[in-house]
TrEMBL record:
It comes from the Eukaryota. Disulfide bonds join C132-C142, C150-C159. PROSITE patterns: EGF_1, EGF_3, NHL. This is EGF-like domain-containing protein. The lineage of its organism: Eukaryota, Metazoa, Spiralia, Gnathifera, Rotifera. Keywords: Disulfide bond, EGF-like domain, Repeat. One of its GO terms (molecular function) is zinc ion binding. NHL repeats lie at residues 328-359, 373-403, 428-459. Residues 128-160 form the EGF-like domain.
Amino acid sequence: GWINDKRSGLGVLTSFDGETYSGNWADDKRNGSGTLQYADGRTYTGGWMNERKNGPGIMIWPNRDIYDGDWFDSKMHGSGAMLYADRRIYTGGWLNGMKSGPGIMSWPKAEKCDANWIDDKAVCDVHLLAICFPKCLNGGKCTGPNSCTCTSLWTGPRCETQLKFNKWKQDAITVVGGNGDGQELNQLNHPVGIFIDKKKNIFITDLWNHRIVEWKYNAKEGQTIAGGNEKGNQMNQLNRPVDVIVDQQNHSIIIAVWGNRRVIQWLNQKQQLLIENIDCHSLAMDKHGFLYVSDYKKNEVRRWKMGEYNDEGIIVAGGNGQGNQLSQLNHPTFIFVDEDQSIYVSDSSNHRVMKWRKDAKEGIIVAGGNGQGRNLNQLSYPTGVIVDHFGQIYVADNGNHRVMRWYEGKEEGEIVVGGNGQGNQSNQLHYPGDLSFDDEGNLYVADSGNHRIAKFELIL
């Protein structure tokens, strides 16, 4: 419809950039109700006022995050529910696109955080957090607030009373390798990076065997799924792979190959070069499909949009030369990206872990940063880093042969596993590399010097 040369009433507009709007117009602007399909795959259906999302509306993201609630000035504002792709659910207040006011966040395994929220973070007046992993006292079923390990005052970094957090058995189970260093299918030679899929299959970068090995759940040996054709520079060869991630949508694997200075993708034994001339050490992918790569020599982390690897990417951490300032890194190794696109970087030669929020110009120290050492406020060449949904940071303290847990804002961490000296006993580690959790909360460590993957079972 048109009135006085201006769009009015019902109409459909398709833009050159691929966006399509179908709905109501007034005074040449989107007004009323309508659906906008974005070029990046997002879809919004709901109210509009003067070109801005306003009133009740539903947004669906490409990764299947869904928000159903109030909008104001094109931001989530008022009350609404967010169903995340990883099955978390938040129901409560929103302010300028962030969780605000009373709200409840729940996780698939029955953890529940009932809190007041400020800027997407829970603050001190939390009423309940129930932890119900399968090894609960009542067999894993939460029938009420006190049926599992619970606390009345979990709060996060601002509070004095801390939740009694998870613990793991101190004697590990060897789930991969452990048969000495070698190139047989039941052996590894310095595993560095690991990835665990939803079926608990483990993908390992087998550094000095120049291959990627997949071990099925409970298997006695692995299978080579990339490389294994001796060290080399051909597309079907690897030279010291250091990290691997799996795109579980198309079952492809993405590999950081340190010796070849490139990032490649393998799909059905076919290889595609994604990024070259990069001293890559670690990979991460966020919920939007952006790929992050740490560059060990340029002392930076860059981000690429999937499928657009011809450009140089965007620097999202470091990139200001080698150093120990908050805007600098010194030999970054492993990285982790959280739901907010904040990047955690094991800043190895600075013996610290840095957190760079999205679009930040410098990072903050969240672990270590007190020089190399073995005290609880120190690290020694940290490698693997992962963050759980409570915001706790787990670090492979490589030179101290232990895994540490830190909470942002705390002056020191605590030893989670290892810390019993360098060795090959079940309670010892030898230069640990990457870390990972499975869906049950068990902790996996690439125990590089022992040529094995160690599994530490969760206890409550």
